[in-house]
UniProtKB/TrEMBL annotation:
<comment type="pathway">
    <text>Carbohydrate biosynthesis.</text>
</comment>
<dbReference type="Pfam" id="PF00316">
    <property type="entry name" value="FBPase"/>
</dbReference>
<dbReference type="InterPro" id="IPR033391">
    <property type="entry name" value="FBPase_N"/>
</dbReference>
<dbReference type="GO" id="GO:0005829">
    <property type="term" value="C:cytosol"/>
</dbReference>
<keyword id="KW-0119">Carbohydrate metabolism</keyword>
<dbReference type="InterPro" id="IPR028343">
    <property type="entry name" value="FBPtase"/>
</dbReference>
<protein>
    <recommendedName>
        <fullName>Fructose-1,6-bisphosphatase</fullName>
        <ecNumber>3.1.3.11</ecNumber>
    </recommendedName>
</protein>
<dbReference type="InterPro" id="IPR044015">
    <property type="entry name" value="FBPase_C_dom"/>
</dbReference>
<dbReference type="GO" id="GO:0030388">
    <property type="term" value="P:fructose 1,6-bisphosphate metabolic process"/>
</dbReference>
<feature type="domain" description="Fructose-1-6-bisphosphatase class I N-terminal">
    <location>
        <begin position="11"/>
        <end position="200"/>
    </location>
</feature>
<keyword id="KW-0378">Hydrolase</keyword>
<dbReference type="GO" id="GO:0006094">
    <property type="term" value="P:gluconeogenesis"/>
</dbReference>
<keyword id="KW-0460">Magnesium</keyword>
<feature type="domain" description="Fructose-1-6-bisphosphatase class 1 C-terminal">
    <location>
        <begin position="204"/>
        <end position="333"/>
    </location>
</feature>
<dbReference type="Pfam" id="PF18913">
    <property type="entry name" value="FBPase_C"/>
</dbReference>
<comment type="similarity">
    <text>Belongs to the FBPase class 1 family.</text>
</comment>
<keyword id="KW-0479">Metal-binding</keyword>
């Protein structure tokens, strides 16, 4: 490789966030320090996911079950501990909510900061033993009253988040993040241990050709949902959409952000509020989708406008290309 191919001016995630911060004179640097802790957590999980089979980290964590009734995988438990330790030791966090913990974690006074982090340490873990892409999803709120962090600081609409992101562990580790000013993607260079800017200013296509939903639940869907997905398959005079479903939200949303189309986990007769959790699955993904020029709806309302009553509340979600989501909104309007 000749010298000219070697980029000597690499933009790391840390540098990019610092550049962003410099635009805000009032910024204290706390968010940069917190995002460094999130990065550390993702790098650590990336290493363990990559070596899971070699380190015998696959399989169940001895029958432990999380608050959603899912059997916890060894890597679920390890990833959760990695994140809690990284976030707590940053000294920038007041409240944490994890998919793997029933209760919110209120950080002790002496190490408490002014941000709240909601996260799914290892999303799609039902796929981990098959080596299919999994990921970490996170969202960050700023506490309302700097003197005291409580659970009310996270039971807020998703639109009040200040940061949202995910890290996908696959052929490479990809971090996709928004601080409320567009969406950027970074790839982990394992050799230097840095996330490098590789996908600047991600813009989701206005309309796609791919739909992603678990059609195994089709018999439980409501009429509007059935009509919509049939409209993508049994099209008059134009090509039907292609179906793609990995069963890891991070992987299915990542493809949707880059290629366009729609990802959905609708409510149905079996799961009245769908399956995915508002705080640490739906809100961060809806935030990223909107920042990339797309939309996210429950069918009836904007996902980011919902206020959760409990930290593990679920909501239906249809997210993706603007025109595709407007189609489903139109159909639900007609059915309501
Ligand atoms: O198997 P299903 O019902 O289609 O559900 C798949 C969905 O559930 C999840 O695996 C839930 O995530 P967790 O693995 O974090 O519980 C999502 O990643 C995915 O989109």
């Amino acid at each position: 490789m000749s010298e000219k191919n070697i980029t000597t001016d690499i933009i790391t995630l840390t540098r990019h966030v610092l550049d962003e911060q410099r635009k805000h004179k009032e910024a204290s640097g706390d968010l940069t320090i917190l995002l460094n802790a999130v990065q550390l957590g993702c790098k650590f999980v990336a290493t363990n996911v990559r070596k899971a089979r070699l380190l015998n980290l696959v399989g169940l964590a001895g029958g432990a079950v999380n608050v959603s009734g899912d059997e916890q995988k060894k890597l679920d438990v390890i990833s959760n501990e990695i994140f809690i330790n990284a976030l707590r030791s940053s000294g920038r966090v007041a409240v944490m909510v994890s998919e793997e913990d029933e209760d919110a974690i209120i950080v002790e006074e002496e190490t408490r900061g002014k941000y709240c982090v909601v996260f799914d340490p290892l999303d799609g873990s039902s796929n981990i033993d098959a080596g299919v892409n999994v990921g970490t999803i996170f969202g960050i709120y700023k506490i309302k009253d700097e003197s005291n962090g409580t659970i009310s600081d996270v039971l807020r609409p998703g639109r009040e988040m200040v940061v949202a992101g995910y890290c996908m562990y696959g052929s490479s580790a990809n971090m996709i993040i928004s601080v409320g000013n567009g969406v950027n993607g970074y790839t982990l260079d394992n050799a230097i241990g840095e996330f490098i800017l590789t996908h600047p200013n991600i813009q989701i296509p206005q309309r796609g050709k791919i739909y992603s939903v678990n059609e195994g639940n089709a018999k439980y869907w409501d009429e509007a949902c059935t009509e919509y997905f049939n409209s993508l398959k049994f099209t008059e005079g134009k090509n039907p959409y292609s179906a793609r479903y990995i069963g890891s939200m991070v992987a299915d949303v990542h493809r949707t952000l880059l290629y366009g189309g729609i990802f959905a986990y609708p409510a149905d007769k079996k799961s009245k509020n769908g399956k995915l959790r508002m705080l640490y699955e739906c809100f961060p993904m809806a935030f990223l989708t909107e920042q990339a020029g797309g939309k996210a709806t429950t069918g009836k309302e904007r996902v980011l406008d919902i206020t959760p009553q409990k930290i593990h509340d679920r909501c239906p979600i249809f997210l993706g290309s603007k025109e595709d989501i407007e189609d489903i909104e139109e159909i639900y309007k007609r059915h309501n």
